[in-house]
């Protein structure tokens, strides 16, 4: 797991290699720690976590602004809901 | 935006290329299973019995992978991330399975036998629930994820299998932990001398405690004697539909309502009133159509499975596959009753215990002197174990579905995940033996048949999942804090 600040307002979370529930838990925690309006670039490769992350974002109000898939690797950009 | 579109275009074209080789593998798996069915049938028509298990296992695998149907996430994701998707899917599957099998039961064609219920069901569910959160998947979830090429899931299966095989025959110092009343009761059952029921923790737990517990179904509790009323009103309506609806109301109020109303407020729609809440409740049910469709198909398949197995029993005039094995001249691995594990419906863990138990036996272990293997389930060669055919085909069905949707990927494990797989898998193995089944055999199937013990095991799983999530919350928070040491948020 790698969580880093790329630039002001942009964070990257890489949870490749992890299975449930780690990707969704780390995503939830990363978003909780960020400020409203900031962007998280999430990379994961556990397909079933995507369903949970997507539903979690919809429920909380965070917006999945971009979804890319390449050879089983998912790169999503999530904007945290403004406080 | 152009760059994004270009990226997506590249991804799409890559996947299209992969899809062709995936198709070849998918056809190869289906072809192999078809050939196996035809070739074994040509040898002896009794093999159709195994083929029935095989093809229902294949369907289960396809459904589980399609809907990413994991019982573990049904409980875990509620506590971990507040997502009710799988909880809804499982309730739908249980109502459908219950409805189809109610007809099977009412017409006297059920292969189901209710299990004893008591505090042991809750404790077993609790241990299993903690384990399934640690591993990241339940017993059936690990099978379908193995079909996606996931090595951690394969390790979970191995861990469940080994822990059960050892736990079922453990004796020695563990006999000291057995209450004397259990020992007395087990010895008084008069089981065959070869089983030695007074020796072994699990033997004395089963014969001295579990077998003394009551067995009942909701239809019996309500005193319904008409077969159709008993099945459809007692077991399905009162035993599944009403509790499931009430539980989902709780899930809606605690985990779904707030987000739903926030979305409505954003669209300037009303956010109060019964009608609005009913719309929200329905929106929760339909939130993941993929999961709902998988639940529907699983429920129907599981009900039909019972019907087909009963039909084959009637056709061959047997009540257990062990009788057909004898007629084929195969007696190795039969239990003292002349039987092998032949549940007649979807089941996961016992066949996993058996294949490792069989290996231990061939390596010289004396593990046929216990109730689990020696008296009830036997230790047949895995090549002719009915439920093993189901589990292997389940992995095959999941692999086919994953290949066809470009989701198959060989994925190794890490030291951390391997540790959770072994610890969690061991807890699941122990929980399965204490509860006489896993999330499928002890929960899904039993609840769907109106068996009271199913909800008790489920209640234990619910609390166990909560404890598991609390632990992982602490664990992930600790790791996040280390990562964040280098920057300020």
Structural class of chain B: mainly alpha
Give start-end ranges of low-pLDDT stretches of chain A: none
The arrangement of helices and strands of chain B along the chain is HHHHHHHHHHHHHHHHHHHH
**If you average the pLDDT of chain B, what whole number results?**
93
Arithmetic mean of pLDDT of chain A: 93
Cα radius of gyration of chain A in angstroms? 11 Å
Helicity level of chain B = over 70%
Distance between the termini of chain A: 27 Å
Instruction: Sketch the major β-sheet of chain B.
Output: none
Q: What is the percentage of strand-forming residues of chain B?
A: under 5%
The unreliable regions of chain B are 1-16
Spatial order of strands in the largest sheet of chain A: 1-2-3-5-4
Taking the sheet with the most strands of chain A, its summary is: 5 strands, mixed
Please provide the ordered H/E string of secondary-structure elements of chain A. Answer: EEHEHEE
Quick take:
The complex is a heterodimer of chains A (83) and B (489). With 83 residues, chain A is an alpha+beta fold. Chain A has two helices and five strands, in the order E-E-H-E-H-E-E.
Describe this structure in words.
The complex is a heterodimer of chains A (83) and B (489). Chain A has 83 residues and is α+β, with helices and mostly antiparallel strands. Helices cover 31% and strands 39% of the residues of chain A. Chain A is built from 2 helices and 5 strands, in the order ββαβαββ. The mean pLDDT of chain A is 93. Chain B is mostly helical and 489 residues long. Chain B has one domain (18-482). Chain B has 20 helices and no strands. Chain B has helices at 2-43, 47-66, 71-81, 85-106, 119-135, 139-146, 151-168, 180-188, 201-208, 218-221, 227-266, 274-285, 289-316, 321-327, 349-362, 371-377, 386-404, 415-435, 439-448, 452-483. Chain B starts with a helix and ends in a 6-residue tail after the last helix. Classes of the chains: A alpha+beta (83), B mainly alpha (489). The interface between A and B is large, with 38 and 57 residues.
């Amino acid at each position: 797991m790698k969580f880093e600040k790329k630039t002001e307002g942009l964070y990257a979370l890489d949870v490749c290699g992890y299975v449930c529930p780690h990707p969704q838990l780390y995503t939830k925690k990363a978003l909780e720690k960020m400020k409203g309006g900031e962007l998280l670039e999430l990379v994961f490769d556990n397909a079933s976590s995507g369903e949970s992350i997507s539903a979690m974002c919809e429920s909380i109000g965070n917006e999945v602004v971009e979804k890319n898939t390449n050879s089983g690797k998912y790169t999503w950009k999530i904007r945290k809901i403004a406080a | 935006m152009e760059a994004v579109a270009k990226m997506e275009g590249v991804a799409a074209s890559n996947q299209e290329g992969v899809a062709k080789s995936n198709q070849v593998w998918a056809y190869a798996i289906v072809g192999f299973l078809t050939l196996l069915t035809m070739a074994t049938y040509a040898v002896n028509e009794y093999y159709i019995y195994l083929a029935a298990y095989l093809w229902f296992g294949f369907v289960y695998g396809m459904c589980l992978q399609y809907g990413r149907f994991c019982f573990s996430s049904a409980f875990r994701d509620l506590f971990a991330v507040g997502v009710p998707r799988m909880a809804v899917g499982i309730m739908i599957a249980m109502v459908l399975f219950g409805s189809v099998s109610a007809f099977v039961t009412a017409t006297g064609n059920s292969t189901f036998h209710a299990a004893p219920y008591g505090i042991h069901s809750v404790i077993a569910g609790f241990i299993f629930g903690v384990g399934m959160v640690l591993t990241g998947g339940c017993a059936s979830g690990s099978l379908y994820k193995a079909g996606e090429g996931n090595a951690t899931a394969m390790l979970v299966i191995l861990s469940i299998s080994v822990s059960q095989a050892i736990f079922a025959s453990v004796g020695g110092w563990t006999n000291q932990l057995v209450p004397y009343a259990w020992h007395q009761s087990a010895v008084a059952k008069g089981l065959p001398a070869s089983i030695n029921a007074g020796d072994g923790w699990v033997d004395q737990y089963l014969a001295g405690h579990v077998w003394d517990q009551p067995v009942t179904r909701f239809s019996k509790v309500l005193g319904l004697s008409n077969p159709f009323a008993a099945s459809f009103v007692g077991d399905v309506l009162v035993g599944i539909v009403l509790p499931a609806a009430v539980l989902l109301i709780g899930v809606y109020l605690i985990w779904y309502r707030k987000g739903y109303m926030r979305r409505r407020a954003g669209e300037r729609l009303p956010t109060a009133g019964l009608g609005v809440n009913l719309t929200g409740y329905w929106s929760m049910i339909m939130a993941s159509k993929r999961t709902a469709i998988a639940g529907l198909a699983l429920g129907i398949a599981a009900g039909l499975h019972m019907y087909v197995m009963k039909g084959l029993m009637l056709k061959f005039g047997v009540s257990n596959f062990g009788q057909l094995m004898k007629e084929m001249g195969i007696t190795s691995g039969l239990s003292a009753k002349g039987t092998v594990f032949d549940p007649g419906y979807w089941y996961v863990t016992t066949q996993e215990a058996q294949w490792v138990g069989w290996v231990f036996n061939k390596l010289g272990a004396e593990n046929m002197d216990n109730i689990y293997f020696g008296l009830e389930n036997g230790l047949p060669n895995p090549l002719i174990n009915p439920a093993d055919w189901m589990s292997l085909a389940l992995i095959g069905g999941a692999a086919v579905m994953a290949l066809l949707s470009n989701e198959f990927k060989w994925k190794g494990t890490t030291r951390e995940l391997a540790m959770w797989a072994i610890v969690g898998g061991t807890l699941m193995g122990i929980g399965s033996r204490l509860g006489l089944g896993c999330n499928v055999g002890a929960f899904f199937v039993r609840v769907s048949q109106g068996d009271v013990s199913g909800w008790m095991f489920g209640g234990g799983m619910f609390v166990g999942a909560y404890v598991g999530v609390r632990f992982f919350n602490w664990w992930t928070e600790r790791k996040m804090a280390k990562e964040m040491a280098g920057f300020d948020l």
